[in-house]
């Protein structure tokens, strides 16, 4: 088997697992629509079918059990009660694990595997089990069995098709052709049963053939050729050597397919040019056929649900395109700059065209970006499982509700969001949602509700995780922070600051490390992961009502809108998304605070000033800020700061060029870009600049501010 | 002239496997992703043989057989069903609906070609 076909199989498995998860989530939510159940069945069935082709036996075996149970549900022999649904959900998770193991190696928890198999088997009646996967009698092998018998035999074959055979598209001629490949074949037509023309019935079968075949092949090979017409013909195969075997084989054949010699089978009235076969189906198996009928009125609906035509493209090609577009944008700004520098009287026409060029470049860029954009749905669906596992590990019950699943986000962002989201959700179940009893006492539903939502918000993506649990236990959080020396004992913190302590490195509220959320990683890892994506994370919490984590992410990692500023004679770029307001400062707006601090007064509010040049080490921080330009930015904790820069030049789209591998991580600098004049400019990370600035010591700003106001 | 095969299966893996085997063996391979598309494609492709999965969205394999057999012109085209169950019950049901034969999944190259040979006479 070709490796690439197997790769496609695993790709398809991902899609099927998603479809299955989606279906199960709908079922869990009370949607027991037969088409939903059928779609899940099909997904499992396809996984099994593909897995079989690649000899992935463990996967096949489990998928088979799973599928069998679903078949029972489909045919209404089983009721979807909560217990069964839970089992199915856990089985679906396990199936997903088995797929991963089949692809990447490793092993699954055998005990868990056994428990699920046993669980599924409880729902499988014994007879169903017998009917399915076991090859039965002659019906099983469609290939000649290899028998080491080299001696040549002569078979006498009499073949008399019944009229039913002609409705199935079987052609005697092709059978003879196949037979002749086994050895020299002599065919004689026997038309002795043919009546006179006046009494001939059009749809009756009168002809028979007598054949003599000489071959070294065993009898089973000869029988295999007639496999499709068993029961549709009178067939006698005898050889000079095996009179007894023949009788035994025919008896087995009869047992498996009803009596082949009996031409008065009442159930198959199938003259070959009538639509009767369609009517015959309900007679033999009315139940499944009804299913088909019942599904018909919905076919329109399911067509709408069906996927739009898509094209699978190598990610590398898309990325090459994105790079080229990035270069195009840089190229445009260079061109614009050079044109501006030209000493020409009338540039209007050129500028109009240049504007058109810019718009087109932006269109292309947006188009290319949208190729990389993917809905968050698959990611969200995986999260349902995290919540399930977390709930069962903590003996709590919690349900994940998702919203805005079709919100599209850059592929890389989606991939790298998986871990942070997993962590937040585990935490939400472990620390947020209370035990069912406690919830009841608090007058809440026993089942905790966790809402995961995604939405677009002015050029960025907002992901929100909201639980209705107990909220952050602030006194305890503060206590721990003091114990761990993260804050001074007498620190006065606002509620929001306390909540944000959770993101500090080395913070963990778990009294003992639970095997769930406390895996040695704290929320600081989550924060770092989000920052690495150019995003911000925030928490807000109401005691007794729950907590909300908000993650704001850029739409793309390749370009962004930036404000071009100059700092100590260098050109730099500040991401537009973090800037709230810009203003020119004057002396009376600046207030000193202590020895080294300065505050900017904006409409009666005080905001600490952070000198960018000083923070980057480009200029010694001195008490006297040159009255330059201030960019008002908001940090993740909701605090505001004023970044002092020398001047603002421009606001434009810049292409992000990563510095990783070029010069590593520089505090205060997020990445670099190439400007219109070909120069490289640093893209600043306001958050880390503020953290690095001596002026805004992390937690006591507010206190100092209030002191300043009081004094 | 190459023997033309129309394969109808909603599983991309199975379609790929069929394509790999059949194209290598010299068949003219066409495929559809569900029963409805298969029936719609039928007259354009005018295949010598149809291979269809049973459980598919939009129109299942029995529906495919029913529609193809119901149309007098197509009533004799060989139709092979793909089934994971080797149980006689499934085969009997497929045959009652008008299927010519069956291919049991997982299939290997030889059994696939062997099945095609018996209903079209062609090994390619």
Q: Indicate the mean pLDDT of chain B.
A: 82
Distance between the termini of chain A: 81 Å
The second-level CATH architecture of chain B is 3-Layer(aba) Sandwich
| Full CATH superfamily name of chain B | Response regulator
Biggest sheet strand line-up of chain A: 14-18-19-17-16-15
Count the helices of chain B. How many? 5
Specify Rg of chain A, calculated over alpha carbons.
Answer: 37 Å
C-alpha Rg of chain B (nearest Å): 13 Å
CATH architecture of the largest domain in chain A: 2-Layer Sandwich
- The unreliable regions of chain A are 127-148, 259-306, 511-520, 696-711
Largest sheet of chain A: 6 strands, mixed
Largest beta-sheet characterization of chain B: 5 strands, parallel
Q: What number of structural domains do the residues of chain A give?
A: 5
Assembly classification: heterodimer
Architecture overview:
The complex is a heterodimer of chains A (711) and B (124). Chain A has 711 residues and is α+β, with helices and mostly antiparallel strands. Chain A folds into 5 domains: 132 residues, HPT domain (Four Helix Bundle (Hemerythrin (Met), subunit A), Up-down Bundle), CATH 1.20.120.160; 114 residues, 2-Layer Sandwich (Alpha-Beta Plaits), CATH 3.30.70; 59 residues; 179 residues, Histidine kinase-like ATPase, C-terminal domain (Heat Shock Protein 90, 2-Layer Sandwich); 152 residues, OB fold (Dihydrolipoamide Acetyltransferase, E2P), CATH 2.40.50.180. Helices cover 43% and strands 21% of the residues of chain A. In chain A, the strands form 5 sheets. Chain A has a 6-stranded mixed β-sheet. Chain A has a 5-stranded mixed β-sheet with strand order 6-8-9-11-10. A 5-stranded mixed β-sheet of chain A has the order 20-12-13-22-21. In chain A, a hairpin with a 2-residue loop joins strand 12 and strand 13. The longest helix of chain A is centred in the middle third of the chain and has 27 residues. The C terminus of chain A is likely disordered. Chain B is α/β, with parallel strands linked by helices. Helix content of chain B is 45%, strand content 19%. A 5-stranded parallel β-sheet of chain B has the order 2-1-3-4-5, sandwiched between helices. In chain B, strand 3, helix 3 and strand 4 form a beta-alpha-beta unit. In chain B, helix 2 runs parallel beside helix 3. The longest helix of chain B is centred in the N-terminal third of the chain and has 13 residues. The termini of chain B are close together. The model of chain B has no long low-confidence stretch (mean pLDDT 82). The interface between A and B is large, with 72 and 61 residues.
